[in-house]
Specification:
The complex is a heterodimer of chains A (445) and B (799). With 445 residues, chain A is α/β, with parallel strands linked by helices. In chain B, strands 1, 2, 4, 6, 7, 9 and 12 form a seven-stranded antiparallel beta sheet that branches. In chain B, strands 3, 5, 8, 10 and 11 form a five-stranded antiparallel beta sheet that branches. A two-stranded antiparallel sheet of chain B has the order 13-14. In chain B, helix 6 packs across helix 9, helix 9 runs antiparallel to helix 10 and helix 28 packs across helix 30. The chains are: A alpha/beta (445), B alpha+beta (799).
């Protein structure tokens, strides 16, 4: 697969058109930007997932307090150095949901939903079999909140992106739920995502080139038919010409530069960096053009066993994560892997920081919070305590530049806090029991 | 030839024009006409007609506001005037006077060339149905097409593991229906364990009509359902949701085709096991079981079903045809071209035969597009077409994928594809093959047909007939004919019917669905089995019923079963193949399943074919009571082909409570007794009253509102002849005795098949077809072949 990179972007990819080829893109994105401008407190949320727990000693700062006081960030977090003052590390937050399903299953299925799994037929490595979670995930809750108000409505309530998410639907591969038992499939193929977001642009160009030929041919064949039939073909020709004119004028409205997506990245472990980059490019373009304000980006899946040879690691991620702490070699590899994931967070933050808002008021990162998380605290113990939560970004009142220490804080309360920060004032989320206490005040400056 | 109107055209339009006229007895001189040589006909016209029709037949606002239109014979028009004109005082113009005024009208108003522009074959684009089917068959031609040879159920494999792909099945069989409740037990105590097992059903499923199908799976266990797509499941329920066991999703399917279906299912540690697969047919309100005759254990190729929504076709002349070129239509052709091109790009390697990044991708894509264009244009490509639609794209810089996309888009936007006869192939055999496919299957010819066209076939009428006869057996042709009957008998509107639950307990959505199936089975059976005798549509006293219908219509099921058994014992075989396998006839897919429905013999005095089918009787009735007017209008419009104008004033029908001492018939007679009503209702009412023995849900009755039902009527035929009729069978026999009935049917089905007016193929064609139809045992299949042959060999005059 070696399609020409540039051309595949603008012309090759296409989505079926719904409401005519003049296209939603200019107007819808303009509306989105307008909506965001009208709300001076524009807030966006991007939740990023990476699997199999972390290496705590290389991830958590030795103590709570300002990150600026640390000489050096912990090894895994070092890629975030340039965002030190905009980063919030939350230590001591637990996924306390119990019930059916093993730790990986609950780690994933309850991560964004904060609620128990239903009984079902999926058997993990222990405990009872289980099905899907019993409730909605926080990103979908927020998407519904923003979509319900015309002033904040976007073309997409949310976008679900994936990198090497396997093509199978179960509680290990799905973290986003639109309701109980309703998993949402992330788009793991940049080509498909491009098609969903910008397909119409490429199609417009293709259509324009085709219409020239159609118009000429219509004219030539019309000569061979009788008067009344000719009139019908002339009507047809009129519509084709009108379309051509429309396409010509629409062309000048494409907002800004579109990301260079390779139309044919093969979806395998070797291409993971390229896929990651392509997905991030598209995500930033979607945020920049006001297509959405809520997104999730899921790297592989719970128990994800990506073989990241590009890091010089031959073993799969999940099998490595089971190795005991004493195994130095495995631990080093896991640090490398987690550090690579942190680089992805940093790359996304950097791109957001380098992209000005459409209205010129700051950059995207000023109004976007990235939440980086994981289904486990620690891989080899399958612990659901001390789940890694790192917030990067701004504009929502976070007490940034800090490492905060909590004592087995249920993660439901973090999601309640995120909802409040976004302007959605909910009292509980997911399990009512674990929602008790509501917003975590210490998170805010 | 076109200028002289055929004397045997029905007098429907005259009838329509005259019947609603309101007569006001004011004498006005027709000044301009008086200047011409006056005759008796003119005198009468001036004296009695101009008040409503105007001196020059221009019509009079508020009276009869448009011209009298032809065609009609002197006899028909004269008789009509004698019977009805002037409205309210028909005795004023009678006998020879009526003939004279008819002469005058015919000579002065109906004979001029401007009165009736000769119908012509209009340049038409593909209708929506033709577009969808053509695209499906272009792909079928490129990847090969298969049809199952047997039907009756899905292939099933049973295993002891949910990881069904890892082992051979322990049990393999055909399951005629997916409707199992295993409880805590296993599907097979000997071979299969209860705690964990899997079943994989696969094969294909038949879609009887085009539309959106909802597939519904009820199970507390895990499954995936694939329909027409091996890669992406229509429903992914592999993770069980015992608390929400119903799963459903919709998919658009084209009628008359088989689609691959794949349903892996497993139980793992769930307390119980059960699964049921059903569907909701297009337009239906309830989920029903899939008839075993629609399931096959054999796989077929994926069918390309274009999802783009097209605006509906112009149906202003009574049938959908491709004569409306609108912005929406043009937009839809663009969207569909993009959708189709993207479908090819998705499956590039499979369709083109080489990966998009390979060395040979460019050559492969070019070849693919050339084949695609030839299929789409229904002819070998000319050099000009090759240049325009293939080379111009592939000789420009770009990836093979982009070149392919644009070339395909151009082909699908081309007038050469969109207007089937715009650029005709040079080979006359090819042209005829194209037409036959379009008329019978709404599609392009598939490959075997091309072969015979290339090799010099289809030269003679016999060859054309033979070829058509073969194609008529194709399920796509049958689906098209079935759709004709759906439209002709307005069956879709019937699906909306609802009745007073207090009076008609049990008349629910499920029953309405059954009624439609029942009528379709009856029509299918009559048309495709045996002699295909059109008259049986009116004369048969059988109604197809399933258990629910039998219960509602109080058929003694025990006696029925006894009879069936006795019949089976007598003949030494099962009562019918249909009853056993769900498949009637030779092929696997002609008819709806028969195993749930059986023909039931009814009292022939009260039942006569279509006229007394409960679906139509229920639709042509009110919530609580019958509507003789709706029934009469249906018979005159649909079955006799008369066109009736809407009533001059809006009238609310009198309800039963208007006067409890009156029957429905009496109320209708009372309410339509005025002269200006009777001009139409003298035709409508008797036709409806003849059916009064059947109530608002089509059940037989002897009394209405506690009064005996009176079905005795006098019906006046178009030529004014009175006919005494008593009850449905008399009416049916009357219709079967009228040439008009056949003529109307010929015209209707001609239009449905050919999408052009029959008169465009010559003034006398409809007559000739009608005459032969009546002579040759009224065989509907032979009529269809006759129509197709005539229209296929017709040579358009070059202007």
């Amino acid at each position: 697969m070696n399609l020409n990179r540039r051309e595949s972007l603008r012309a090759l990819l296409g989505a079926p058109l719904v409401a005519g080829l003049a296209g939603w893109l200019p107007s819808a994105s303009a509306a989105g930007q307008r909506a965001i401008r009208q709300n001076p407190e524009t807030r966006r949320l991007v939740i990023v997932f990476s699997p199999n727990g972390t290496i705590p000693s290389k991830f958590w700062p030795a103590s709570g307090g300002p990150l600026g006081d640390l000489g050096e960030l912990p090894e895994i977090l070092q890629p975030l150095e340039e965002f030190r003052d905009r980063t919030l590390v939350l230590h001591g937050i637990d996924n306390r949901i119990r019930g059916d399903g093993d730790d990986h299953m609950r780690g994933m299925g309850c991560l964004l939903t904060g609620i128990e799994l239903s009984p079902g037929n999926i058997q993990g490595g222990g405990n009872t079999p289980a099905g899907w979670p019993r409730g909605i995930s926080i990103d979908q809750e927020l998407a519904n909140f923003f979509q319900s108000d015309p002033a904040t409505r976007c073309r997409f309530g949310s976008l679900e992106l994936g990198v090497l998410v396997p093509d199978r639907a179960d509680v290990w591969t799905r973290m986003v739920y639109s309701a109980a038992n309703r998993p949402v499939t992330p788009i793991a193929d940049p080509r498909r995502l491009f098609q969903k977001l910008f397909g119409v642009v490429g199609d417009r160009e293709s259509l324009r080139s085709v219409l020239e030929i159609v118009a000429a041919d219509l004219k030539s064949v019309a000569a061979s038919v009788s008067g009344e039939d000719q009139a019908r073909l002339n009507d047809h020709l009129d519509w084709v010409r009108q379309k051509e004119l429309e396409l010509r004028s629409a062309d000048s409205e494409i907002p800004g530069q579109l990301p260079p997506v390779d139309g044919a990245i093969e979806l395998n472990g070797d291409n993971m960096p390229a896929i990651s980059q392509a997905q991030q490019d598209l995500l930033v373009a979607a945020l920049r053009t006001g297509m959405t304000r809520i997104a999730t980006l899921q790297y592989t899946n719970s128990v994800g066993n990506a073989k990241m040879k590009f890091l010089g690691i031959e073993e799969g991620h999940h099998e490595l994560s089971h190795e005991p702490d004493e195994k130095q070699d495995a631990a080093e590899k896991l640090v490398t892997i987690n550090r690579w994931y942190c680089e992805q967070i940093a790359a996304l933050a950097r791109q957001l920081a380098n992209t000005p808002e459409a209205d010129g008021a700051g950059t995207l990162l000023d109004h976007t919070t990235i939440v980086w998380t994981n289904e486990l605290g620690k891989g080899n113990s399958h612990s659901l305590s001390d789940i890694p939560f790192v917030l990067v970004g701004g504009g929502m009142g976070w007490k940034s530049g800090q490492a905060l220490q909590f004592d087995h804080m249920p993660h439901n309360r973090l999601w309640i806090s995120v909802a409040h920060a976004m302007g959605h004032r909910i009292e509980k989320f997911g399990s009512p029991r674990h929602s008790r206490g509501g917003v975590i005040e210490e998170l805010f400056a | 030839m076109h200028q002289t109107t055929s004397s045997l055209q029905t007098n429907r339009q005259i009838c329509q024009s005259l019947v609603v006229t309101v007569w006001i007895a004011i004498l006005v001189a027709g000044g301009e006409l008086a200047a011409q040589s006056p005759d008796r006909g003119q005198e009468i016209f001036v004296q009695h007609c101009v008040q409503c029709h105007g001196a020059r037949n221009e019509g009079v606002a508020g009276q009869f506001d448009h011209p009298i239109a032809g065609p009609a014979t002197r006899e028909e028009l004269g008789s009509f005037i004698e019977q009805t004109m002037p409205v309210g005082n028909p005795e004023l113009v009678a006998g020879e006077d009526a003939g004279r005024v008819a002469d005058f009208i015919l000579r002065n108003f109906l004979a001029g060339p401007e009165q009736a522009a000769p119908p012509r074959i209009e340049l038409s684009h593909l209708t929506v149905t033709q577009y969808e089917n053509s695209l499906a068959d272009i792909f079928a031609g490129l990847v090969g097409t298969t049809r199952p040879e047997t039907a009756g159920g899905l292939s099933a494999e049973y295993r002891n593991s949910r990881e069904f792909w890892k082992s051979d099945p322990l049990l393999a069989r055909t399951d005629s229906r997916i409707r199992f409740d295993f409880g805590e037990a296993s599907p097979d105590a000997e071979k299969i364990q209860a705690e964990e097992f899997s079943i994989v059903w696969s094969g294909s499923i038949f879609a009887p009509e085009t539309g959106t199908y909802e597939f519904v799976v009820d199970t507390p266990n895990g499954f995936k359902l694939h329909v027409n797509n091996d890669d992406v499941p229509l429903i992914d329920g592999w993770v069980s949701t015992p608390e929400a066991p119903r799963h459903s999703a919709t998919i658009k399917l084209l009628g008359g085709r088989w689609y691959r279906i794949y349903l892996p299912y497993h139980k793992f540690k769930d307390p119980v096991a059960a699964i049921q697969l059903g569907w909701r047919l297009p337009g239906a309100r309830t989920v029903s079981e899939i008839p075993p005759g629609y399931l096959s254990g054999q796989w077929v190729q994926r069918v390309f079903v274009v999802e783009t929504h097209f605006p509906p076709d112009d149906s202003s002349t009574g049938y959908p045809r491709g004569t409306l070129v609108s912005r929406e239509w043009d937009e839809a052709t663009s969207a569909a071209a993009i959708e189709t091109a993207d479908f090819v790009l998705e499956g590039f390697e499979k369709l083109v035969g080489t990966p998009p990044g390979s060395e040979t991708a460019g050559a492969g894509a070019r070849e693919f597009c050339a084949k695609f264009a030839s299929a789409a244009f229904r002819k070998p490509l000319s050099d000009e077409e090759k240049q325009l639609y293939i080379s111009d794209f592939f000789d420009t810089a770009g990836s093979p994928a982009l070149q392919l996309k644009r070339s395909l888009m151009a082909i699908l936007k081309s007038p050469r594809f969109l207007y089937p006869e715009l650029v005709a192939p040079a080979n006359p055999g090819r042209l005829r093959a194209n037409r036959i496919s379009l008329f019978l299957t709404d599609s392009i010819p598939d490959n075997p047909q091309l072969q015979s066209a290339w090799s010099g076939g289809l030269q003679t009428r016999e060859q054309v007939l033979e070829h058509s006869r073969r194609l008529l057996d194709d399920p796509r042709s049958r689906a098209k004919i079935r759709q004709f009957f759906v439209e002709w008998l307005e069956m879709d509107a019937a699906a909306e019917v609802s009745k007073d639950p207090d009076r008609f307990a049990g008349f629910d959505d499920a029953l309405v669905g059954d009624l439609k199936t029942s009528l379709q089975l009856f029509v299918d059976h009559t048309v495709w089995e045996g002699q295909g005798d059109f008259r049986q549509l009116f004369l048969s006293s059988e109604i197809w019923m399933n258990a629910r219908m039998k219960k509602f219509y109080a058929i003694d099921t025990a006696a029925e079963a006894g009879e069936a058994e006795a019949a089976a014992a007598e003949s030494g075989e099962a009562k019918s193949a249909a009853a056993e396998s769900g498949v009637a006839g030779s092929g696997a897919d002609e008819t709806l399943s028969g195993d749930l429905f059986q023909p039931v013999s009814m009292d022939s005095a009260e039942r006569a074919g279509l006229l007394t089918h409960p679906l139509l009787l229920s639709k042509l009735a009110y919530f609580r009571s019958t509507s003789p007017i709706h029934r009469g209008v249906f018979v005159s419009r649909r079955l006799l082909g008369w066109q009736l104008k809407p009533p001059p004033v809006a009238v609310d029908p009198l309800g039963e409570d208007y006067d409890l001492a009156m029957t429905t018939r009496q109320r209708v007679e009372f309410q339509t007794r005025a002269d200006n009503c009777m001009s139409c209702h003298r035709v409508i009412n008797p036709l409806g009253f003849a059916l009064e023995r059947l109530d608002a849900v089509g059940r037989a009755r002897d009394s209405d509102n506690a009064h005996p039902v009176d079905t005795h009527v006098i019906h006046y035929a178009a030529n004014g002849q009175p006919h005494e009729l008593n009850g449905p069978r008399d009416l049916a026999e009357y219709l079967v005795g009228e040439r008009e009935t056949y003529r109307n049917f010929v015209e209707s089905i001609f239009q449905h098949l050919v999408k052009q007016p029959v008169a465009a193929y010559g003034d006398d064609l409809a007559d000739r077809l009608t005459g032969d139809f009546m002579k040759n045992g009224c065989n509907v299949r032979e009529l269809i072949l006759d129509i197709v042959a005539e229209a296929a060999v017709f040579e358009t005059k070059k202007e």
